[in-house]
Amino acid sequence: MTTPLQDHGLNPGPGHSPTLRRPRGGRGLVPALGLGAMVVSMMQTLLVPILGTIQRDLHASAADVSWLTTATLLSAAVCTPLLGRMGDQYGRRPVLLGVLAVTVAGSVLAALTDSLPLLIAGRVLQGASTAVFPLAQAVLRAELPARRLPAAMGTVSGTLAFGTGLALVGAGLLTRGDAPDYHRVLWLATAVSVLSLVAIAVYVPASSAASGGHTDWRGAAGLTVTLVLLLLPISRGTVWGWTSGWTLGCLAASGAAATIWVRVEQSMPDPLVDMRVLVRRPVFFANLAGLLLGFAMFSQFILVSALVQVPPSAGYGFGASALGASLQYLLPSSLVSLVAAQLAGTLVRRTGPRQTLAMGAVTGVVGFALLAAWHSSSAAVLGSGMLVGVAIAFGFAALPAVLLAAVPPEQTAVANGVNSVARSVGSAVASALVATLVATAGQGHPPAEPRFTTCFAIASAAFALIALFARFGMAATPGDHRHAGAPKAASKPGAGPVCPACPAC
Question: Which candidate, 21, 37, 316, 389, has a CA 20 to 30 Å from the CA of 118?
Fold first, then answer.
């Protein structure tokens, strides 16, 4: 009889001693990787609360300034799978250091400039930081024994959620007053990135596994074209118009590019993304769940912030400032996520990642349903937001564990990278939906309250789908683990089983 851990790939199972995998990670490994994950979420949300300040200081239009978020999104989507694959091939430590060095360079460039094009260029470089999270998950798999993996994944995932709250609060505190200066926020990004770079250099072992092989540049180019053509109209739809020729043309071209990319990847001996792995049932549904998780997370961030800043004269809302919205309503949710991630790690170990993901998703359904039905008091919004924070933490902790059980070690980073891209797409869709349903009132008038209710209900439905995917979609089927074999497992003595999800390993 197997335990939940053995069923889900987080325990070597009968016949495998934990000592087969020799732990190399010291005590500082998990905090260092957690700090790196915090950089990821900070770069994604740091400038969102102060776009108005940047627009005023640079005398730019709202459409031009919105490229500061679009550029980072596109950069993250393009770089993450490629850098994840390079980490699997050439070693995670050097790629992690390279990614963080690029992030530091982008942060310094953005902090020093008063030019919008250079600021956008800096944000493009910062977007590469998104690759840190999948690389961190791959390092944990390579360096820690199975018994420590769930807790370590929970910690790293928790700091990913916490970074969003820290970014919001930091941006608010550093730009308060009569003469706010956005440069201070970018220097904060620089400081955190440098600290993370030093921590990775000190605590991540140089012996992280590398599978070798060549880089599939054709696949990388095809994926870049596909993602840019997909994300560009999603993120710019409110500016271009959802039925404009630019929007519809880009979406159609994205579909054509995706078809060509898949065919190219299937013909490659060492593809950027192994399609056979991507279409495995657990991986496929994990990526769909990642998309929905990104949608729900960004929906909470935008919707709650907008809701609480609506003046009470509109018949709802609390008239909070941007800083008040961050400190009072969003930071508590991030702190709860940090704590809940530790619980999620324990649950992954005891009950398995699918059950943990399902429990978190149900919590998210309840949280958003309460927000839809009852957002007339601060206590209700705060409490419901905390439930959503728990759900997000459970999702971040469980999805990497689902992928861990479904892919071989040499594809860990790229599999998590694709999942990160799915979350980015979900975030872009959430931003576009909210901009369409909530932020289009115009003329300085707040949107009608039912628009918030509708968006909260949609986010609740997203978590309901995640729960269904976890329950019925992510179960491994026969043949899912054919990548493992005895010769491969024996090729690296002392490294532990190649595929901890396979009983044969």
Answer: 37
Q: Give the structural domain span for 231.
A: 217-273
Length of the chain: 505
Please indicate, yes or no, if residue 159 is contained in any of the structural domains: yes
CATH of the domain at 199: 1.20.1250.20
pLDDT in tens, 8-51: 444 444 443 333 444 455 689 999 999 999 999 899 888 888 88
Q: Six-digit token pair at 263? A: 């065919």
Question: Residues 355, 398: one domain?
Answer: yes
Q: How many CB atoms lie within 10 A of CB 132?
A: 31
* pTM reported for the whole predicted model: 0.82
Answer whether 469's CB lies under 8 Å from 374's CB: no
Helix or strand holding residue 85 (H, E): helix 67-90
- Long-range contacts of the stretch 271-275 (C-beta < 8 A, 24+): 271/216, 271/219, 272/81, 272/82, 272/85, 272/215, 272/216, 272/219, 272/220, 272/223, 272/414, 273/81, 273/85, 273/219, 273/223, 273/414, 273/418, 274/411
Say yes or no: 110 and 226 in one domain.
Answer: no
Does residue 346 sit in the same domain as residue 392?
yes
Q: What is the pLDDT of residues 197-234, one digit of tens each?
A: 999 999 998 865 566 667 788 888 998 899 889 988 98
Q: Which tokens belong to 470? A: 């976890």
